[in-house]
């Protein structure tokens, strides 16, 4: 289906296309399809940044005539062919929920009034949609968190959150791709690198993909960490809607 979109300048070099302000897979799919369509239609060098309910279009040169580009984008959206779906993937990523890694696991389980084992089971049995990648290179904003796991960010953020830390905040979950300050509630750790600047595609996950976490033991964590460091770990990937 087509949505009422709005287009506005987003600085001298960018344009922002916005969809209705709802978090929904159907809107995200529409954004991704339009993104793919524009890659074949727009002239010049453009960078596309899809996220939640918007698509940012960025180029090196200053956009000189917004009105012409605005009309062009609206026409392209009317031409969008919905028979060509964007290929998306489901990634299964390992997470160790050991208390050494899950710094907030006990506190979160008490606040949510559930056992640690139930918390882990709920978190690892769900599939999450990648609605955006940002904040840090490779940081995935994962939507679709069960309501039973929704919890506010920590009142006092940590100055250092370890690389690979898996956290909860509001209606989202995510993985810290590198050490960083952060205020998410940490419940585990993913041993494999999410972002590698030396790879052809630094972040192997794309917006629109889905993530499912697999609970692993401490021994499995150590093994996968070594495999990730030497570059031989291959995340389990399946094509969605195949």
What's this model, at a glance?
The chain has 242 residues and is of the alpha+beta class.
Structural notes for this entry:
The protein is an alpha+beta fold. The chain has 2 domains: 6-79, Gyrase A, domain 2 (2-Layer Sandwich); 89-239, Cyclophilin-like (Cyclophilin, Beta Barrel). It is 25% helix and 29% strand. It is built from 5 helices and 14 strands. The chain has a 5-stranded mixed sheet. The protein is elongated, with a radius of gyration of 20 Å. The mean pLDDT is 93.
Question: Could you give the topology of this structure?
Answer:
Layout: E1 6-9, E2 14-18, H1 25-41, E3 47-51, E4 54-58, H2 66-79, E5 89-96, H3 105-111, H4 116-124, E6 127-133, E7 140-143, E8 158-161, E9 165-169, E10 172-175, E11 180-182, E12 185-189, E13 210-216, H5 218-230, E14 236-239
Enzyme class: hydrolase
Organism: Croceitalea rosinachiae
Domain Carboxyltransferase: 5-205
The H-and-E topology, N to C, reads as: EEHEEHEHHEEEEEEEEHE
The spatial strand order of the largest sheet comes to 7-6-13-5-14
The CATH superfamily of the largest domain bears the name Cyclophilin-like
Gyration radius from CA atoms, angstroms = 20 Å
By CATH, the topology of the largest domain is Cyclophilin
Quickly name the level 1 CATH class of the largest domain.
Mainly Beta
Domain Carboxyltransferase: 5-205
EC number: 3.5.2.9
Keywords: ATP-binding, Hydrolase, Nucleotide-binding
Organism: Croceitalea rosinachiae
């Amino acid at each position: 289906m087509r949505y009422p979109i709005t287009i506005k300048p987003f600085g001298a070099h960018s344009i922002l296309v916005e969809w209705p302000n709802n978090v929904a897979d159907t809107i995200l799919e529409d954004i991704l399809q339009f993104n793919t369509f524009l890659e074949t239609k727009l002239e010049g060098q453009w960078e596309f940044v899809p996220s939640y309910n918007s698509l940012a279009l960025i180029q090196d040169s200053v956009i000189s005539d917004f009105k012409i580009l605005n009309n062009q984008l609206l026409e392209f959206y009317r031409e969008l062919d919905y028979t060509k779906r964007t290929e998306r993937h489901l990634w299964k990523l390992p997470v160790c929920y050991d208390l050494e890694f899950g710094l907030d696991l006990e506190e979160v389980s008490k606040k949510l009034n559930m056992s640690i084992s139930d918390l882990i089971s709920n978190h690892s049995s769900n599939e999450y949609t990648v609605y955006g990648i940002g904040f840090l290179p490779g940081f995935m904003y994962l939507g679709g968190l069960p309501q039973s796991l929704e919890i506010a960010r920590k009142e006092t953020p940590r100055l250092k959150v370890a690389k690979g830390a898996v956290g909860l905040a509001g209606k989202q979950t995510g993985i810290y791709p590198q050490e960083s300050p952060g205020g998410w509630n940490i419940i585990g750790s993913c041993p494999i690198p999410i972002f590698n600047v030396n790879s052809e595609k630094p972040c192997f996950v794309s917006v629109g993909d889905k993530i499912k976490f697999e609970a692993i033991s401490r021994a499995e964590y150590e093994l996968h960490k070594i495999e990730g460091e030497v570059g031989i770990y291959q995340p389990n990937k399946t094509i969605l809607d195949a």
